[in-house]
Write a structure and sequence with these properties.
The protein is mainly α. Helix content is 74%, strand content 0%.
Amino acid sequence: MITTPRSVMTIVSGAALVLGLAACSTAGDIASAAGEGASSAAVGAARGAALSQVCGYVSDGQVSDADLQQMRAAVRAAEAAGVQGDVITQADRLLGDGGPDEGQVAQLQAACAQAGQADPSSS
């Protein structure tokens, strides 16, 4: 049995140290999770911006040679940002040999609308 004040203080100090370390660990976990969340949000924003840029080139239904050159760079940037899916697939088809046709432009517009970009036919 603990009977001396010094023994009681040692136990209390030890318990305080353990609680303090646990609090630091929890604070570190919270800070780490916040950092990961911010990083994830930044990646999501970069992907959204890349999609928006690719989709912007077909928003009016007209695709010039300059648009094609800029879209090619935007598609590569979107891929580098980790964007995958129908927008990239349709953009690659549109950028393929032979130049784009109206059907390919419409398919890319539909893919953009499906990806959450504004539907260009409703503007």
